[in-house]
Amino acid sequence: MLSYLSCLFSTTSISLSRLEKVLDEALAQVRIILVEPAGALNVGSVARILKNMGLQQLVLVNPQCDPRGSEAQKMAVHAVDILETAILVETLPEALSGCQRAIATTARQRSLETPLEHPRHALGWLLETPSALIFGPEDRGLSNEELNYAQRFVRIPSSSAYPALNLAQAVAVCCYELSQLASRSQTVPPAISSEVSPPSEASLDRLEGFYEHFETLLLNIGYLYPHTAASRMEKFRRLFNRAHLSQTEVDMLRGILSQMEWALNSAEQSGAVDDTLIACNHPVADTLCNSPNSSVVEQPATRRESESPSSETSI
After folding, report:
1. Domains along the sequence of the chain with CATH
2. Which of 7, 34, 124, 206 is deepest in the core (most CB within 10 A)?
């Protein structure tokens, strides 16, 4: 009997050890990003929360305080190591380098076309691949420009009488949900695997490169104007982010952009600039180029296709 119990406890111990290892690996993929944190006490509290919930990566974007000073250490207590290993960067794109997924937090609906989700419903998505959870400054939250770097958005439900949470409180709620979701995912039997594995999602670095390339081309052809480019690109970002593009798909799209740039440069050098480009540089181009029935857009496209029968193959 004693030998049976000893074997049972030993097996249970091994199983728990393996489970903890799997949980640690899942949570280790998620980095917590604080954008321009202003309070050292908050940064220290966040470090402690990360250690409480099994997370390890803390990234600070342009901190407005001393993230390793006495105040931060006072709140971190036994999580000073999280502060010491925290990565400090100047910009949000730097903080997201190497990630494939990103979720941003916001306290209000704003004018986002992408819906705001409950943390419990969305955060599990971060556990499958190198990812980031982004929090904004204490005084203003994330700007629309900063939100553009995320693919999904979460809002923590709270009382309408006082909906705003302290930064450390918001991080605590989300990290708790992450920890619970990671634990739950290990107790659910895995789905029957398909013979064809899904394509790897493009990294956020590569997506950002595509967006910059795309915006540059749209500005060059006159579809975008400098004073409206930011708002237009927000819509394009939402569109492509919903598609969760793979690396191969991003490469394909950038290949198309490069081919278009080459064709435009060739046309300019030969003096045969397409009528579409002339129209799109006209003051009313915004209307013409966005009208699905506009002959200014459709007719040159038809001519170009007939003149370049091999264009599809070259792409």
Report:
1. 24-185 (3.40.1280.10), 204-314 (no CATH)
2. 34
